[in-house]
Design a protein that fits this description.
With 1087 residues, the protein is an alpha/beta fold. It contains 24 helices and 29 strands. Strands 5, 7, 11, 19, 21, 23 and 24 form a seven-stranded mixed β-sheet that branches. It starts with 114 loop residues before the first strand and ends with a helix. It binds zinc ion. It is found in: Cytoplasm, Cytosol; Cytoplasmic vesicle, COPII-coated vesicle membrane; Endoplasmic reticulum membrane.
Length: 1087
């Protein structure tokens, strides 16, 4: 195999393969683990077939003439009855010798295992450095304090920042390659070449270090951009032949056999972490590498002289680049629709724009998995340590060109289900006996087909009406639920929204109350509506509070609203039923009058104390009295210290950071809120909390109810109308208008062999299987982890079915079903080839963020590192070709795992900087818990966009650059966003014309630091930048407030916090250092 034989770039995935013979017959392994019935069981007799809507445009429902799906190879494979959507193309786990699809062409190695070989440390060799070069380099090196004191175990950069160890400040302009990177422990080779990112991966060769002997030209590993280092040029991938012997740098302690490339480390003290035990005489000859990575030498198998190793720089361009991976995926997969027909297809990355065609599996917008190929046995899974998880966003918003799930109405009989496991009818169910019965694909139970659902089968065994029924041909669809699926066997009333406004002193003084009341007047016209309904069915109610609660009667027949005060907050009750929850249009005059009066009524308040739990209690009781589900919108400013249930005390204590008690900062200080949340869930009462704190408010405790009820928390610290109104109002509008499913229960069923064992997200669980959500909005995800409970089968694969029972915003009870079929493998390489790193990181971050509730943060971090090392070591051991231990080999699909994991490790929750408050950490912790994959991706690795590099006419989003200070040019302007924050960084030597056009001031020094709004100027640059900002904001679920940061300004420290490839002020490792550390961990596991 050689590098140039890599898979065609156009088809990185889904290489057509012969059918999956036998797929159809293998469903349903053992009956065995049957799933207990849901609380809402429905009989399935006598359904009326048919669904409400016409087939979607663009989705063909008509069976192809042959009765088989499109270009089906199914029948060719032996005339077996085949499932329509399956058994054709795109089966991914072919024989290992074939070229497999993978994210990047050109990436595979031995046995088709995509291997990314990387030098772990440094070694930009190409043409071996001459001694003089090396000397020059050494002379220019700086050994950072952190390096010198590098702890032997905790790894690089994990300690607290050593002062002076990383001049993170103001070293702009020092970007040239040869320069010592301020934050890097490792040093750059002076001769390092500029990035060669543009080189197509195929052409690049990753010459792994040789272990000598004849080896397969395994170097098919994609060369990382820039890996060349003068090494084999991009066009000479396979350097199996001997390159010139490498010169040893002066001072090198290498004693290895001929050939080990020079170690840059050798004489560099302080780099022992990476090098430990490296200089191996053990390594085989390395002659074959003129390659970029003769890096091997550094990692020998014998302990080296640790203390004497110099820091060395691993060239940042030589390590896997998130930007490159994102770009490649966009180029390779962005142009063609992702068709979900085949089992186990890895979807395009979340950063790629692509269209989805549902042909039997749920769109990746609804479900993404950590791997689309699951090990057949639990032993394999344990060995690999790759978490098997699905990130499910059941009500995800779809782009306009993709149809919402069809609603199927089976009439009084309700949806058709398996008698035993209660799985819903889906494309994977197999009809037998001429269509009179069907075998459940989840539990294998044979069920009778009710007479009214009967249909004949075609010669392939497929129902002839398969394409006319969403539940037989699509991955996602909805069923109208019958009364059996409703609480108390009664169809629900439409939900209600209750606005509960803090009117204490701070809320009034900041202008919040006035702003909010004014906004609500118009916002109430935009409550969620069902489909094309003219008006929203949602009723609204209003409460204001400080130490006491004020309820308002806004009945349409009243001339003026009436206030009722409840001061007995210990025993909350709702003083009125009639007139509290009203239709907006009917009561508009009264509501408007109320909203006008509220700011005036409390204008002179002196009350600073607030209650909190009684407010939620009141809202919940009101919904209970009205017998409906709903949502509370709480606008709250302070720690609730007034005497009342749920009263809190200030227990913030930063001294607990890095102690075993740090976890208490994340735990609620009283269990009262959990109890309250449970009652809310039972009532279908979801709580969205808008916080406006001027100081510590104990977000960890206040967010318990929102978190357990599927709600959201928004936080606007030190809120001031003039600075923050745009952000708040934008979030509020979006939040109020969001489509929400109320009073929901979600269940994930799986085929025999695996089962859902763990769940993460904003919800409540009272048993081990049902995820209860008082509310579930379009942005929320539920993460589900799976474990084996039996052996899986390669032929039958593994199936997931997520069923969400909910009440729509019009009060209709529905079931939304998402189905997904995954492949199963007996070769670990197949697992590694079908992983999704973004999804893995999403899972791992959530796992870690939950872990801090119960374990010391350091333990959580160590666990993540160990797991990552195990994942990569397992790959190295079982899937990669044998090669020098000095070489870091990463699976192609996981080559970004280290960089992303490092971002998680150094995030505020796991490694807070001095400026991060306890509330910030608790806030972010709960936010991440229900983020989808796209959100965690940009949150942990922000997007950094250069603004003046591309032609001004080009208004499309410019290609991002890596999040590192080195990538900033002082002559340019950059936008940085992570989904929550948005910065505009202005270099000190930006052209004056640019400054004028963007800021309307004459020079850089006149730009106001911290500016949050760009002037609206009529010139192309101003329009372009403002357009880009608008565009970025539209992509995110929360409004990102802009902060203009000038180079070398104080605010820049804040900005640099987001340059995640660099070492952080809080001691977080740079990417380069972390990669080295990870390599060391892997080597330890392998030795
Ligand atoms: Zn079943």
């Amino acid at each position: 195999m050689n590098v140039n034989q890599s898979a065609p770039s156009a088809l990185p995935y889904g290489q057509p393969q012969p059918v999956y013979p036998g797929y159809q017959s293998s469903y349903g392994g053992q009956p065995g683990s049957t799933v207990p019935p849901t609380p809402y069981e429905a009989s399935y007799n006598g359904p009326l077939p048919g669904y409400q809507q016409a087939p979607p445009p663009g989705v063909s429902r008509a069976p192809p003439p042959s009765g088989a799906p499109a270009p089906s190879t199914a029948q060719a494979s032996g005339g077996q009855a085949t499932y329509g959507q399956f058994g054709q193309g795109d089966v991914q786990n072919g024989p290992s010798s074939t070229v497999q699809m993978q994210r990047h062409p050109g990436s595979q190695l031995f046995g088709s295992a995509p291997v990314l070989s990387q030098p772990a440390v440094v070694q930009p060799y190409g043409p071996p450095p001459t001694s003089s070069q090396v000397s020059a380099q050494l002379a220019g090196m700086r050994i950072s304090g952190a390096t010198a004191s590098a702890p032997s175990h905790s790894g690089l950069g994990y300690g607290s920042p050593t002062s002076g160890s990383f001049p993170n400040s103001g070293l702009y302009g020092s970007y040239p390659q040869g320069q010592v990177p301020p934050l890097s422990l490792a040093q750059g080779h002076p001769g390092a070449q500029p990035p060669q990112r543009s080189a197509p991966p195929q052409a690049s060769s990753f010459t792994p270090p040789a272990s000598g002997g004849p080896r397969m030209p395994s170097m098919t590993g994609p060369l990382l951009p820039g890996q060349g280092f003068g090494g084999p040029s991009m066009s000479q991938p396979n350097h199996v032949s001997s390159p010139p012997p490498q010169a040893l740098p002066p001072g090198s302690q290498m004693t290895g056999p001929p050939g080990p490339p020079p170690s840059m480390h050798s004489s560099q003290p302080g780099y022992q972490l990476q090098q430990n035990g490296s200089f191996g005489s053990v390594r085989g000859p390395q002659p074959n590498y003129g390659s970029p990575y003769p890096g091997a030498p550094t990692f020998g198998s014998q302990p080296g002289p640790p203390q004497s190793l110099p820091p060395k720089r691993l060239d940042p361009d030589a390590i896997p680049s998130p930007i490159q991976v994102i770009e490649d995926d966009r180029n390779n997969r962005g142009s063609e629709p992702f068709v979900t027909g085949a089992r186990g297809q890895v979807p395009p990355l979340v950063t790629t724009n692509f269209q989805v065609k549902d042909q039997g599996n749920a769109s990746p917008r609804y479900i993404r998995c950590t791997s689309y190929n699951i090990p057949c046995t639990s032993d394999m899974a344990k060995q690999a340590q790759v978490p098997l998880a699905a990130i499910i966003k059941p009500l995800a918003r779809l782009p306009p060109e993709e149809a919402s799930p069809y609603v199927v109405d089976h009439g009084e009989s309700g949806p058709l289900r398996c008698n035993r496991c209660k799985a819903y009818m889906c494309p994977f169910m197999q009809f037998i006996e001429g269509g009179r019965r069907f075998q459940c694909c989840f539990c294998s139970c044979i069920n009778d087909v009710p007479p009214q659902y009967f249909q004949h089968l075609d010669h392939t065994g497929k129902r002839v009406d398969a394409y006319d029924r969403p539940e037989l041909s699509l991955g996602s669809y909805e069923f109208l639920a019958t009364v059996d699926y409703c609480k108390n066997n009664k169809f629900p009333s439409p939900p209600a929204f209750i606005f509960m406004i803090d009117v204490s002193y701070n809320a009034i003084r900041s202008g919040l109350v006035r702003l909010l009341c004014e906004e609500l007047k118009s916002l109430l016209d935009f409550l969620p509506r069902e489909g094309s309904a003219e008006e929203s069915a949602i009723r609204v109610g209003f409460v204001t509070y400080n130490k006491v609660l004020h309820f308002y009667n806004v009945k349409s027949s009243l001339a003026q609203p009436q206030m009722m005060v409840v001061s007995d907050v210990a025993d909350m009750f709702v003083p009125l039923l009639d007139g509290f929850l009203v239709n907006v249009n009917e009561s508009r005059t009264v509501i408007t009058s109320l909203l006008d009066q509220i700011p005036e009524m409390f204008a002179d308040t002196r009350e600073t104390e607030t209650v909190f739990a009684p407010v939620i209690q009141a809202g919940m009781e009101a919904l209970k009295a009205a017998e409906c589900a709903g949502k509370l919108f709480l606008f709250h400013t302070s720690l609730p210290i007034a005497e009342a249930p749920g009263k809190l005390k200030n227990r913030d204590d930063r001294k607990l950071i890095n102690t075993d008690k740090e976890k208490t900062l994340f735990q609620p200080q009283t269990s009262a809120y959990q109890t309250l949340a449970k009652e809310c869930v039972a009532q279908g009462c979801c709580v969205d909390l808008f916080l406006f704190p001027n100081q510590y408010v104990d977000v960890a405790t206040l967010s318990v109810v929102p978190q357990l009820t599927g709600g959201s928390v928004y936080k606007y610290a030190c809120f001031q109308v003039e600075n923050d109104q745009e952000r708040f109002l934008s979030d509020l509008c979006r939040d109020v208008q969001k489509v929400v499913g109320f009073d929901a229960v979600m269940r994930v069923r799986t085929s025999t062999g695996i089962r859902a064992v763990d769940f993460f997200g904003a919800f409540y669980m009272s048993n081990t299987t049902d995820v209860e959500l008082a509310g579930l909005d379009v942005d929320k995800t539920v993460t589900v982890e799976f474990k084996h409970d039996d052996r899986l089968n390669e032929e039958s694969g593994a199936l997931l079915q997520c069923a969400l029972l909910y009440t729509s915003c019009a009060g209709q009870r529905r079931l939304r079903i998402h189905n997904l079929a995954l492949n199963c493998c007996t070769q670990l390489a197949d697992l590694y080839r079908n992983c999704e790193t973004d999804t893995l990181i999403n899972y791992m971050a959530k796992f870690a963020y939950r872990g801090v509730l119960s374990s010391p943060v350091k333990t959580v971090r160590d666990t993540l590192i160990t797991q990552c090392a195990q994942i990569l070591a397992c790959y190295r051991k079982n899937c990669a070709s044998p090669s020098s231990a000095g070489q870091l080999i990463l699976p192609e699909c996981m080559k970004l795992l280290p960089v992303y994991l490092n971002c998680v490790l150094k995030s505020d929750v796991l490694q807070p900087g001095a400026e991060v408050t306890t509330d910030d950490r608790a806030y972010v912790r709960q936010l991440v818990t229900s983020m989808d994959v796209a959100e965690t991706n940009v949150f942990f690795y922000p997007r950094l966009l250069p603004l003046t590099k591309s032609p001004i006419e080009n208004t499309t989003e410019p290609p991002a650059v890596r999040a590192s200070e080195e990538r900033l040019s002082s002559g340019d302007i950059y936008l940085l966003e992570n989904g929550l924050n948005l910065f505009l960084w202005v270099g000190a030597s930006v052209q004056q014309g640019v400054v004028q056009n963007l800021f309307n001031v004459s020079s850089f020094s006149h730009i106001t630091s911290g500016l949050s709004v760009l002037p609206v100027l009529d010139n192309p640059l101003s329009k372009k930048v403002r357009g880009l900002i608008d565009n970025l904001r539209m992509q995110r679920s929360r409004y990102m407030k802009l902060i203009v940061v000038k180079q070398e300004d104080k605010l820049e420290m804040l900005f640099k916090h987001f340059l995640v490839e660099d070492k952080s002020l809080s001691g977080g490792a740079s990417y380069v250092d972390f990669l080295c550390h990870m390599h060391k961990e892997i080597r330890q596991l392998l030795s």
